[in-house]
Amino acid sequence: MPEVISDRKVFSLIEVTESIQKTLTDRYKSSFWLKAEMNKLNHYSHSGHCYPDLVEKREGKVIAQMRSILWKSDYFRLNETFKSMLKEPLKDGIKILLCATITFDSTHGLSLRILDIDPGFSLGELEREKQEAIMKLNKEGIFSNNKNLTLPLLPQRIAIISVETSKGYADYLQVIDNNPWGYKFFNFLFPSLLQGEKSIISIISQLKRIRKVIHHFDVVAIIRGGGGDVGLSSFNNYELAREIALFPLPVITGIGHSTNETVSEMVSSKNAITPTELADFLIQKFHNFSVPVRKAEETIIDKSSRLLKEEKLKLHNEVKFFQTATRSQLLKNYNTIRGNGQTLKHQVKFFVRQESHLIHTLKSELQRSMALLIQQNTNTISQLSSNLQQNAVSFIKDQNRSLYNSSKQVSLLDPQNILNRGFTITLYEGKTVKSFSELKAGDTITTVLAEGKIVSNIIETTNSPDQHE
Amino acid sequence: MSDTINYSEAFEELQMIVSEIENGEISVDDLSEKVKRASVLIRICKTKLTTTEENVNKILKDIEATDNSLQ
Questions:
Q1: Phi/psi class of residue B27: alpha, beta or left (left: φ > 0; alpha: ψ in -120 to 50)?
Q2: Which residue of A has its CA nearest to B29?
Q3: Nearest-angstrom CA–CA distance, A104 and A108
């Protein structure tokens, strides 16, 4: 009951709170449904109770806020329902449709006691957020950016975003490190949370770190596993999906769940579903490179040895053909020569025979002609010889006669005969004097007569008047 | 020349030689040279499959350097 102090009615605090409690209990008798965003779940693991902080925002600003209570048993039940239906636990930041009563406690004040939460509503909200993220990425035209990157021929250097102790990472390493083909990969872990709201910031910050050393890597792998299907809605987050879509290296995901593909997986270059499949995918890439190389090796060995064999055979055949052709040509030539030889022999024989016949004919003809000629010549000679005899006799007779005449003339001209007829020859100094002028008085002259010589000196010379001079 | 070629180029060139040899475009005269070249390319490709030159310490150093510069 209130006291009266200095004419004033004074209530104790408990009286006030009890009054408020009474008023509220009378006013809000039944439970009701309302929708709100669960800003913080505020789960106390010690007691197991939750004290969710509910808000309503308008254009990002909080326009209403209220504390609520979710008792341990209700929390456990509702959380299980959420995990099975939404694949998400009750967590910070989700929109919920809840059934509550208003309670007022003297020590804890006003709060909403949560009796039930409709998981269908939250599921719809999550799906709406996911679709919104997809729409935004499409609108920005970056949804397929990472998908359009070309994976290197050999994705060998892998920047891994995972939890070092997770089963998924161990599964991945098991397949990669023990591949029986000896393929060598370089794995570098960028540790990050992969579940719950905090994973968004954690993954984005690791992607930013990878960007700084991007030249060391061929591909980014986001590996999760062993965590069940719960707590994956963070991969639908627009900011995270955007970071992945815009990442300059191809991003491969192996997040390991059976629910619908998350936005982060959609925008990734490749969604390998599980860590093991991601490892297999990388190994397959190596196969795609290795098999053609091995096949190339085999083909080159096979084809080149076949080519050599073919060429050898061709050469062998050529040689054989050449030998055969040469032999047959030689034989042909031999036969031709032999044939020609035979022909020549026959022809020569025939020719010789013909010629000898001709010679024989000519010989007899010659003999006959010669005999005839000799006969003719003999006749001519005898004719000539008789002619010669006749001619010689008459010639000698002629000559004799002419000789006689000549001797007669010669004797007429003989100086002796002239001397005999009384003529003389006068000599001066041994020479015949033929001119009067050659001589002068005193010269000694010799006068030759028929019977002898007279030597006389000229006493006087007198010129005959009737002569010249 | 063969030491500076990267594995993608080596792979591509190797495929080219294979297609040439398969189509019978290589004469016996060129065969020896082509086979020699192919063996170099195969070695480059096979080496790439089984080795990696990345150095963990170098990456750590690079990350630290950038982390510090961001602070």
A1: beta
A2: A308
A3: 7
B30 contacts on A by Cβ (under 8 Å): none
Residues of B in contact with A207 (CB under 8 A): none
For A20, counting Cβ atoms within 10 Å of its Cβ (0-12 exposed, 13-18 middle, 19+ buried), the class is middle
| 3-state secondary structure (DSSP) of residue B52 | coil
| Cα–Cα dist A293/A270, whole Å | 25
Q: At what angle do helices A275-413 and B7-22 cross, to 10 degrees?
A: 60
CB-closest option in B21, B48, B50 to A303: B21
The dihedrals phi and psi of B9, each to the nearest 5 degrees, come to -65, -40
Q: Which helix (H) or strand (E) holds A3?
A: strand A3-5
Cα–Cα distance, A369 to A292 (Å, whole number): 108
Residues A265 and A143: beta-carbon distance below 8 Å:
no
Residues of B in contact with A295 (CB under 8 A): 18
CB A37 within 8 A of CB A66: no
Contact (CB<8Å) A212/B51: no
pLDDT tens-place string over residues A441-457: 888 888 888 888 888 88
A188 touches B: beta carbon within 8 Å: yes
Q: Where are the alpha helices (DSSP H) in A246-274?
A: 263-267
Cβ contact (<8 Å) for A293 and B58? no
**One-letter amino acid of B65:** A
pLDDT > 70 fraction of chain A, expressed in percent and rounded: 98
A386-400 burial: b if 16+ Cβ within 10 Å, else e = eeeeeeeeeeeeeee
CA distance A271 to chain B (A): 24
Establish whether this prediction's ipTM goes over 0.95: no
User: pTM score, two decimals?
Assistant: 0.64
Q: With an 8 Å Cβ cutoff, are A307 and B31 in contact? A: yes
Structure-token match 């930013």, residue found: A208
Q: What residues does A50 pair with on adjacent strands?
A: A43, A70
- Residues of chain B found within 8 Å of residue A214, distances taken between Cβ atoms: none
Report the pLDDT averaged over residues A116-140: 92
Asked if B66's CB is within 8 angstroms of A212's CB, the reply is yes
